[in-house]
DNA sequence: CAATATAGCACCGATTCAGTGCTATATGCC
DNA sequence: GGCATATAGCACTGAATCGGTGCTATATTG
C-alpha cells in the first residue's frame, strides 16, 4: 500500500527521541511512557535496530538503547531496511543483467520495468534522507511550542 | 511493506504501453497477449484509471483504452493515487492544523511526526515523476534490443 | 443478432502485519 | 546473594489487505 509499516514508524519515533538524547540511554519503558506505543512491539523493533547496528543495546537495570552512529550518518534507507528488510531491488535483476553482473544495456535498458525504476528512485530518496533531517527542531524549542499549543487548545473552547 | 501493489504495477505497464501508441486504442486483450498479466485484474485496473480520468475508455468491439492526457502531464502520483487511493497525507492533519486549515507553526512544526514528513517527501517525488519519464526508450529501439537479447539468450534462432 | 470489450459488484484464498505470551539472560542496587 | 529491571529470542494469533476470479450487464461494431 506504499506506506511504512507501524514497525518502521515506531523505529523512527524511537530514533528521533534518541537524537534528542545523544549520549544517554533510552529504555523501552521510557519511550512508552512518553508516547502511546505498545511496549512489546517497540522492544521488538529496537532489537532489530540493534541487530542492524544502528543502535547499541545495554542490558540489565539502567540499561536501554543509544545511537550507534551520529544522526547525520544514519539514513532512512538503513532504518527501513533494518525493520522491513531491504526491498528486492538490489539492481536490475532482469535477463539483461544475468550476463556478468552488470546490466550491459543499461543506457537504453528496455527490460527494466517502470516499477523497478520507481523503486530505485524511491530508494535513492531514502538513502539520501538522514535521521537528523527528520528531527523537526531543537528540543527546548519544541517543548515550548507544544506547551503553547496545549494552552491555546485547552483554554479556547472555540475552533 | 513500502512497495507498490501489483495493481499499480499493472497500471504502469499498461500506461507505458499506451504511451508507445498514443492516439490508438489499447484493449485488455492486447495487453495480456503481450505481457503475462491476469486479464481480469488488468481490466479492473484500467477501469480505475478510467474513473480517475487518466485514460479514456471506448466500449464495444474495437474498443479499448487510450491516454486521456499527454504522457508528460500524467504523474506517478496520479497513477498510484488512482489505484491505491491517495495516502492519508493531505496535509499536516495534526492538532496544529485544525485551526484555520493551514499549519500555523509550520516553520518549526513540532507535532508533525517524522513519518508524515517522510510520506510528504515521497509523495513529492511521485508528483514530480511523469509517465513519460518512466518510458525507457523509443519503441523501435527497444524492440531491437529485446530481439538481440532473445537471440543471445536462446543460442538457437527462431524463438 | 453475434462477437467483442468495458462496467460493476462481490467474493475467496493467501500473505503480511500488528500485537502479545513466555522464557532466558544480563546488569545494577540493596 | 537476591531482587528488580531491561534486553534477547522465539513463536503464535487475529485482523487487514491484496491478488485474483466469477458472474452479469451494457455498449459498439459488423
Which terms summarize this structure?
homodimer; 50% helix; 159 residues; Arc Repressor Mutant, subunit A; DNA-binding; 7 helices
Task: Provide a descriptive summary of the structure in words.
2 copies of one chain form a homodimer. A two-stranded antiparallel sheet of chain A has the order 1-2. Chain A contains 7 helices and 2 strands, in the order H-H-H-E-E-H-H-H-H. With about 160 residues, chain A is mainly alpha-helical. In chain A, helix 1 packs across helix 3 (about 40-50) and helix 1 (about 5-20) packs across helix 4. Mean pLDDT of chain A is about 80; it is low at about 90-110. Chain A has helices at about 5-20, 30-35, 40-50, 75-85, 115-130, 130-135, 140-155, and strands at about 55-60, 65. The longest helix of chain A has 17 residues, at about 140-155. Chain A is about 50% helix and about 5% strand. Chain A has a domain at about 5-85 and about 130-155: Winged helix-like DNA-binding domain superfamily/Winged helix DNA-binding domain (Arc Repressor Mutant, subunit A), CATH 1.10.10. At the A-B interface, helix 1, helix 4, helix 5 and helix 7 of A face helix 1, helix 4, helix 5 and helix 7 of B. Chain A binds a DNA duplex (30 and 30 nucleotides) through helix 3.
